[in-house]
Specification:
globular; 16 helices; alpha/beta; single chain
Length: 562
Amino acid sequence: MEKPIIMAVDDEPSVLAAVARDLRRRYSGDYLILRAASGAKALEELRERKLAGASVALLVVDQRMPDMTGVEMLREALTLFPDAKRVLLTAYADTNAAISAINEVHLDQYLMKPWDPPEELLYPVLDDLLDDWRAGYMPVFEGIRVIGHRWSVEGHRVRDFLARNLVPYRWLDIENDAEAGELRRLASAEDAPLPIVVLRDGTTLSQPTLAELGDKIGLHTAPIGDTYDLIVVGTGPSGLAAAVYGASEGLRTLLVEREAPGGQAGTSSRIENYLGFPVGLSGADLARRSMSQASRFGAEILSPTEATKLETRDGYHILTLTDGTAVAAQAHIVATGVSYRLLEVPGAERLTGAGLFYGAAITEALAIKDQDVFVVGGGNSAGQAALYLANFAHSVTILVRGKGLAETMSHYLVERIESTPNLTLLTGASIKELHGEESLEAISVADASSGAVKRLPARAVFVFIGAAPRTQWLSGILQLDPQGYLLAGQDLARDERGRIPGWPLARDPFWLETSVPGVFAAGDVRHSSVKRIASAVGEGAMAVTFVHKYLGALALAALPGR
Ligand SMILES: Cc1cc2nc3c(=O)[nH]c(=O)nc-3n(C[C@H](O)[C@H](O)[C@H](O)COP(=O)(O)OP(=O)(O)OC[C@H]3O[C@@H](n4cnc5c(N)ncnc54)[C@H](O)[C@@H]3O)c2cc1C
């Protein structure tokens, strides 16, 4: 198979030669390095390569070129290779152009010339971008293929699972893709129910359960040991941070995740307010980076495996997993976050995954190409999803019950929504019913002021109407607030004598400690937590500090003569 392309574009021959030389030195083993002496020549070459089915990984383009600026060239290139990483070469005076290009052409980085030595100033940046690109790159005939109906619930479930577990796959639509029928025939699976997953070695799975699929594609679902120093439940930002700090500080750490790494943040198309990433990063990137960091420090990660029960015996907290396996540790961190609130209207249950989606904007983006779609909700997650979907859909309509977005959405998102031509805001609007037999066809929307109900054609509805903790499995074991959030530290309820019911120790609970000593709560699942990635990461890291204090006190108490 032909190597993916890295292209350098600059009108100054000496600079172009130097850029191409630096690129060749490091990347020519894995990539084909091309160069073009103008924006127009570069686009001509890219069009030809597109026809030939090539993949473009990276474009490194000078901003100052006479016939066409770098930003103008990248804008055109975006339509040909939307997934290629984009780097602008700038002089100091072009910094403003580069910053506005971050939004305009989804610029991934800008680099100031010159960059000597490249080992310090060029390669780390490009390595990072190429790693990201590789993570989403699907070579045509390698990897997993999924055959199914575009709007089927089961198909969506499988695709979402693979995407969120960062497993590259190729989707083949049985109705529109001739290769889908051919592959199904070749796999002798013509009568097998869809979706069918064709694995790398050619074996097929028909309508697999997620656990079965996870097992077959090599996800780790059963623990190696039965006792750990620390068990963390949930691999959202807070659980992953806890694992990184726990494992890097010498604790034998087990991480348990019921769905896929990244938690809610993993479903975000673009996180723009996380410290240290000025051009933003996708939730999938954040999840992938954090997972490799946690693994590098030695944390063991189980996914998909659900924690179903927690009990305390002989100083150990024992966690039961979906398949009945029990794992024990003296310290646990519950970082199970929150899950989307469901839309409770007629048709919603039936059409979930078949046109109605909860926060699954990324997986469905290509399926809604050129369609009219709706986003329900006025928070930041709805705004991010709407902007992302607008890159693919014919039109995106945001439905909000209130009068506008100003009070519920960050200002930078509102501004961007207002300037996106195929995005419309419908205020005072709520969905009353979803219509469609096999898949979503239309929605009934009520207008709050007139009470009138309109039926609008709709191919997809993405719902972001808040979230709630799923802590039923901890009810009666840990103190919960009326909404099900975990109470910890100062928030724990006390009786009239100022005591926390069931608390066995003389000391007060640590700040993130729940009503059971040694069990900590971190991130969105905690009562009164700030619902932000940075806060979740902070709490995950902080919980580990308390774990050390807790384990230190246990070790001290166990010393002879104590
Ligand atoms: C679409 C979207 C976009 C967002 N964008 C931003 C943003 O740009 N900036 C920002 O600061 N915040 C953003 N947020 C909010 C941010 O993602 C959350 O505050 C953050 O993810 C909370 O992290 P957490 O680790 O506490 O929980 P979560 O991210 O909710 O993760 C919890 C994890 O625990 C797992 N789990 C739950 N129960 C169990 C169980 N019983 N057993 C095993 N595993 C379990 C879940 O599957 C999940 O993976 C966004 C949220 C969404 C939904």
